[in-house]
């Protein structure tokens, strides 16, 4: 990554070309080149205090021009801009926050005691900038003390720009990095409290219950952890679940490292690791229409020294297999039919409230084809079997596996 | 509003009269300054939101899909770069607004000198130095979208430059637009009409830009004829391949990947009606395209299609790739009775989905969910056939599968075969050391792991001795296999039959899980039953596994 940073201090007068006041490294940009981008680095007043990124001269310039108006300055205003110069293919999102924050630091330093305008403090600017440049390139963060009261803290944004995923109550968070390597003090208090309940089998609702924390908070904590790639969410394990292999199953036969990891992960505790052939046979035995229970009765993973729960967990974490969700959906031809029929049935239901308590618990909104068995069971408190009985008994509901 | 829709399109030129913004679309009528109603907080204890950037006078950015806060003068200033930056990608981001363009010099230096001497009589001409067609996007779009818009801007710029040199088209359009601007600026202050409104009827180029903007928002594809002479056609894959109300997005990288993996046994599945597709093709397109479109059917592979249409296979691929990129078709394995389909993971199964009604109106008295639930369990297509059904019912069944494949509700599962040895061995036998090497080598029997170590190695020794005597020449043919694999194969009873072993040897490269059965059948010219029999005979070392074809899977990504 080639990037540098510089800080032009500008004077808005005709004939006086704006000059780069401090540059790190020195002389990486010529005056001609600077003229080319000057309009974006020292822009018109309309564009001040905005984050401006421009691709030019095989670089990306990212800066935030600031203007401080005060009669004490020679032209009634001090204009400055701390720019970062990045390679043409670098993602600028990483630095956007840093640039904005640094501009804020510089503004407050100037407002407090004229850091940028006084000659003696201005002289220290190149060294400060070069330190920021070196530290950010090396560690991605830096901390520079300007004086007793002011310290600059900067850190590049590591989270990706992807949208945060939604965390559902019936999902199970599993650590994808070594749990012991995480020092719990790095996390906020709520996360610290739930950390020990994340064992790869507890779902979000149960974690909330056991840790005695409000479920929306737990969801937010886990969402953060997913964003930082500490945990991954997988569906809750049940013997009635159906999984099928994905094209990534090829990886397992080619990648020796993944194989070893897999054998170590899926083996029963305290026994010799299972053979690859058996593990692979179990993964290949997963197919639509065959539940984990079927797989167990057919192959008896216990005898093969395989823990089927960890087998599925490993498969889901590495993407070797995927879950087929069971979705009850109504069979009406149009949405209107569905609405009319559900209104009718809910009226009828009220009469038989006592006899069909379970059916009543299952509101029709759960049966509109958007919700899978896990979600419905988790939200309504029905067991899998109770739900299965209701769905089997209703001629207007079919089950879709996807 | 879709994220990859453009916010605005702007034409900027710089020349002897300074930088000027000639045209922008959509333009906001200046009178549109409605006051925002004050929001009443839901919870009266909630902290009042910090009112940041809500002051509309100073706010500049994108609001409700409109670019606001930037004056024409500022835009002209920031969008006309230095002449050194011409001919390259122009990308400027101001907070949440992204400007993408391809600035071009109107004349190269020698052109200009030539023009000068040529048109010295026309002194009144206002020289134009550079122009830039800029698309305004939201800053959060993906880089590949930005790349596509840059491509479009570049195409328009090249066409405009060509017409400028040929016909001075851009100069005359510029004159027309500038004169409108001048007229408007001489009007009294209170006249609240936008000059851009008056440019539209007077400039063909402005109307073209308006059409470009409208069609980008509506369909994502652009067909433009600049000055009635140069064709500019463009398609934004993010928009064109956006199916089922945004549930499926196919990225351009995925399209390129899947196009690189087309095989002769695949085929095209049209996503639009042929009656619509043929007239929509440009008038000067190759007759091969129309011929191919007319003959194509989801039941015919590319190879058959190439024979039927008498077009070389490579050209068939090229045409198919083109149709796929433009969102007219997708790549599938031809429909046949042995195909296994399941419900695609990202398909929408909601009852409120518009697909439900579309299905019912297309296939009378049928419910989409009923049909989907039938496809929930994998069975070959022949298994879904009602044995007592009428022929037209079967035809309808095929139509239904095609319909669901077009909407990516179904996905095909293929069978892949893996060779997994029964014997595990880490080393090759060391023939020089003979007996000594055997001790070091650790042969472990999977089934006999509970056996004492001495016994198992003894068994291995014995086995190896016996088999070396039996097949001295076959070892040579199984060269591509590792030692353990070779040993395991030879242990299978079917290996005693030289014919079977010969066929097996021929097919070993396909047993790495990279080729599905249909592909093996195609490359090795085998029937399904031959292949299945062989796999059955060697089932001790072969595992089969059903999953999607990675090539077609690209079209299903969300």
Automatic annotation (TrEMBL), chain A:
GO terms for biological process: cellular response to amino acid starvation; negative regulation of TORC1 signaling; positive regulation of autophagy. One of its GO terms (molecular function) is GTPase activator activity. Pfam families: NPR2. InterPro entries: NPR2-like. It comes from the Eukaryota. One of its GO terms (cellular component) is vacuolar membrane. Belongs to the NPR2 family. PANTHER family: GATOR COMPLEX PROTEIN NPRL2, NITROGEN PERMEASE REGULATOR 2/TUMOR SUPPRESSOR CANDIDATE 4. This is Nitrogen permease regulator-like 2.
TrEMBL record, chain B:
GO terms for biological process: cellular response to amino acid starvation; negative regulation of TORC1 signaling; positive regulation of autophagy; TORC1 signaling. GO terms for cellular component: GATOR1 complex; lysosome. It is found in: Lysosome. The keyword Signal applies. Residues 484-542 form the GATOR1 complex protein NPRL3 C-terminal HTH domain. Its main location: other. The keyword Signal applies. Pfam families: HTH_NPRL3, NPR3. Keywords: Lysosome, Signal. Belongs to the NPR3 family. As a component of the GATOR1 complex functions as an inhibitor of the amino acid-sensing branch of the TORC1 pathway. This is GATOR complex protein NPRL3.
């Amino acid at each position: 990554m080639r990037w540098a940073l510089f800080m032009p201090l500008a004077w808005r007068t005709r004939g006086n070309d704006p000059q780069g006041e401090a540059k790190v490294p020195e002389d990486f940009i010529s005056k001609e080149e600077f003229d080319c981008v000057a309009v974006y680095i020292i822009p018109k007043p309309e564009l001040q205090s905005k984050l401006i990124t421009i691709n030019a001269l095989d670089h990306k310039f990212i800066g935030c021009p600031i203007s401080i108006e005060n009669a004490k300055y020679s032209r009634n205003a001090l204009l400055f801009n701390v720019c970062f110069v990045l390679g043409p293919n670098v993602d600028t999102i990483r630095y956007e926050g840093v640039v904005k924050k640094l501009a804020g630091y510089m503004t407050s330093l100037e407002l407090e005691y004229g850091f940028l305008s006084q000659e003696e403090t201005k002289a220290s600017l190149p060294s400060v900038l070069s330190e920021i440049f070196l530290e950010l390139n090396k560690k991605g963060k830096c901390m520079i003390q300007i004086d007793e009261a002011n310290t600059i803290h900067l850190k590049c944004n590591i989270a990706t720009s992807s949208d945060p995923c939604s965390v559902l109550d019936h999902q199970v968070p599993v650590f994808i990095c070594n749990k012991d390597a995480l020092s719990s003090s790095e996390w906020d208090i709520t996360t610290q409290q739930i950390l020990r309940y994340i064992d790869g089998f507890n779902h979000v609702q149960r974690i909330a219950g056991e840790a005695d924390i409000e479920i929306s908070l737990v969801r937010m904590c886990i969402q953060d952890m997913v964003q930082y790639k500490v945990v991954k969410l997988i569906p809750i394990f049940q013997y009635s679940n159906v999984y099928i292999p994905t094209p990534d199953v090829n990886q397992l036969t080619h990648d020796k490292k993944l194989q070893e990891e897999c054998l170590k992960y899926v083996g029963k505790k305290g026994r010799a690791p299972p053979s690859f052939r058996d593990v692979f046979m179990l993964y290949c035995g997963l197919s639509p229409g065959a539940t984990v229970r079927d797989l167990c009765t057919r192959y008896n993973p216990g005898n093969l020294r395989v823990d089927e729960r960890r087998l599925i967990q490993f498969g889901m974490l590495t993407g070797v297999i995927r879950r087929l969700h069971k979705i009850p959906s109504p069979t009406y031809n149009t949405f209107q039919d569905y609405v009319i029929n559900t209104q009718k049935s809910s009226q009828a239901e009220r009469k038989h409230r006592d006899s069909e308590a379970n059916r009543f618990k299952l509101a029709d909104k759960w049966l509109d084809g958007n919700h899978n068995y896990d979600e419905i069971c988790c939200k309504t408190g029905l067991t899998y079997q109770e739900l299965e009985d209701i769905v089997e008994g209703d001629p207007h509901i079919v089950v879709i596996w996807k | 509003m879709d994220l990859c829709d453009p916010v605005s399109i702007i034409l900027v030129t710089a020349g002897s009269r300074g930088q000027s913004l000639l045209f922008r679309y959509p333009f906001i009528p200046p009178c549109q300054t409605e006051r925002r109603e004050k929001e009443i907080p839901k919870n009266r204890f909630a902290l009042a939101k910090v009112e940041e950037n809500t002051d509309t006078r100073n706010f500049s950015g994108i609001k409700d899909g409109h670019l606001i806060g930037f004056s024409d003068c500022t835009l002209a200033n920031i969008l006309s770069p230095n002449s050194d930056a011409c001919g390259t990608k122009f990308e400027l981001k101001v907070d949440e607004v992204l400007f993408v363009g391809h600035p071009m010099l109107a004349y190269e230096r020698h052109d200009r000198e030539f023009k000068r001497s040529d048109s010295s009589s026309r002194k009144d001409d206002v020289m134009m130095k550079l122009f830039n067609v800029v698309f305004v996007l939201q800053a959060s779009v993906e880089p590949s979208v930005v790349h596509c818009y840059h491509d479009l801007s570049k195409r328009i710029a090249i066409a405009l430059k060509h017409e400028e040199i040929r016909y001075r088209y851009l100069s005359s359009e510029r004159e027309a637009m500038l004169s409108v601007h001048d007229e408007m600026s001489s009007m009294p202050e209170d006249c609240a009409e936008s000059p851009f409104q008056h440019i539209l009827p007077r400039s063909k180029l402005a109307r073209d830009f308006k059409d470009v903007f409208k069609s980008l928002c509506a369909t994502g594809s652009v067909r433009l004829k600049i000055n009635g002479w140069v064709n500019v056609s463009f398609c934004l894959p993010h928009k064109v391949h956006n199916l089922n109300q945004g549930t499926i997005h196919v990225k351009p990288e995925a399209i390129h990947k899947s196009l690189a993996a087309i095989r002769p046994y695949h085929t095209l599945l049209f996503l639009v009606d042929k009656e619509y597709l043929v007239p929509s093709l440009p008038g000067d397109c190759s007759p091969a395209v129309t011929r191919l479109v007319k003959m194509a059917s989801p039941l015919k592979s590319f190879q058959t299609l190439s024979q039927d249409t008498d077009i070389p296979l490579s050209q068939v691929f090229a045409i198919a790739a083109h149709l796929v990129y433009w969102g007219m078709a997708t790549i599938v394995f031809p429909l046949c009775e042995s195909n296994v389909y399941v419900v695609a993971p990202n398909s929408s199964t909601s009852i409120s989905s518009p697909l439900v009604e579309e299905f019912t109106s297309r296939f009378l008295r049928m419910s989409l969910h009923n049909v989907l639930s039938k496809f929930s369990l994998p069975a070959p297509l022949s298994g879904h056939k009602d044995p007592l059904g009428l022929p037209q019912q079967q035809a309808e069944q095929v139509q239904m599968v095609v319909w669901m494949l077009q909407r990516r509700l179904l996905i095909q599962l293929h069978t892949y075969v893996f060779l997994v040895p029964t014997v595990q061995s880490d080393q090759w036998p060391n023939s020089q050391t003979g007996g000594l090497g055997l001790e070091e080598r650790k042969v472990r029997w999977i089934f006999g792991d509970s056996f004492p170590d001495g016994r198992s190695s003894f068994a291995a020794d014995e086995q190896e001795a016996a088999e070396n005597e039996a097949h001295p020449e076959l070892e040579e043919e199984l060269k591509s296999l590792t030692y353990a694999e070779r040993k395991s194969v030879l242990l299978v009873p079917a290996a005693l039959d030289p014919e079977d072993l010969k066929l097996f040897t021929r097919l070993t490269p396909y047993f790495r899980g990279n080729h599905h059965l249909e592909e093996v059948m195609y490359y090795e010219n085998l029937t399904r039953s031959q292949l299945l029999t062989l796999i059955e005979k060697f089932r001790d070392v072969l595992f089969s596994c059903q999953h999607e074809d990675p090539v077609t899977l690209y079209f299903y990504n969300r």
